[in-house]
Amino acid sequence: MVIAGQKRKLPTRWSANADDEHRQLPATAASSSFTPVPDSDVVDRGILTMAKATELFARYRDRMAPNLPAVVHPPSMTVSDLRKNKPVLFLSTMAAAASEDNDLQKVLSREVMLVFADKVFLSGDKSVEIVQALLVAVVWYWPPEHFEELKFYQLVHSAAVMAIDIGLGKSFGNKQPGTGLYNWQSHPMRRQALPDPTTVESRRTWLACFFMASNTSISLRRPNLIRWTPFMAESLEVLESSPDAAPSDKYFCHLVWTHKLGEEVSNQFALEDATARVNINEARTQHTLRALERELENKRDSVPEDIMRPALTLGFEMINLYMHEIVLHSKTAVDQIRPPFNTDAFKEGVIGPNLSPPPTSMPSLHVLAQSTASSPRFSHWTW
């Protein structure tokens, strides 16, 4: 009998001394194209010097992370500390920060993907560090040469699923001994204890998982794996008020809030459902839209000027477009406004041939035009 969490033992015939014809793997399986991950890291193997690593670490910390501070490092942390204590996050950070050196970035990106394959999918390792490494890899994802090789959606959900598995999404502080959840946390067969989800670092990491999952859901019109919860609202308050929070956490909280509203917009107008149709002329739809507009405007007005950076401005504009796109759904198939766009679908206009936009949709059309006109200011903006 095997207890839950206990590793199964191989039968005797599969032991090293067993003489069984089935013990040998087929030649096709033995000649796998997967490259084993070396024991030494990229510095030991001469791919990266410590001087270059220090330069890349400074670039990430000073120029990249402030724009989207999903994963931040303490001011006292050095690149040597990161390499020693969090080697997976170190490699992911190096790959992200090497984007200005195309050849080095390609090599480091392959290295980090090999590590993810080994630790996440082969070994089944789970930790806050690996979740953070996945987040860094996807936030600063460099698109491959071929569109079908895009992996950011898989990386986002790998980070989200792992965060759920290690319990970042809820506090266990109120659980009493004897409940199943408490016993699973303290299970003797666990390789390592679960992290404390109430620390500032864990809360920031969990909110970053929500942010990225919601972002890809809005962009690709796919189901959102992580939904807004009271624990997330609590985490926002902690990051905004805790003395242990990073200076960039208040800014990050505003970014997360925009996607919280984006989830509410999606729920109200069923934007994840390709078969749903929302009529802009219905009183209920107009009332809901005006309420969302007021909520967005009030939040935008409450953001201090020193925090309203380009990425946050773009976030507000994106949600503004998102909530008003329902006007385009009138007499228009949803698939016609999904990328890649087919220009032939718009030859007769977005409303449809021989039709005029209803009067109630004109404010929404105005917002769409206004937001679209302002967005290109950031289209070529680099992190």
From TrEMBL:
Example GO molecular function: DNA-binding transcription factor activity, RNA polymerase II-specific
GO biological processes: DNA-templated transcription
Protein's cellular compartments: Nucleus
Ranges of Basic residues composition bias in the record: 1-11
Region (Disordered): 1-20
Xylanolytic transcriptional activator regulatory domain ranges (all copies): 77-226
Keyword annotations: DNA-binding, Nucleus, Transcription, Transcription regulation
Stored InterPro entries: prtT, XnlR_reg_dom
GO cellular component: nucleus
Entry protein name: Xylanolytic transcriptional activator regulatory domain-containing protein
Organism, scientific name: Bionectria ochroleuca (Gliocladium roseum)
Pfam families the record matches: Fungal_trans
Keyword Translocase in record: no
Main location: nucleus
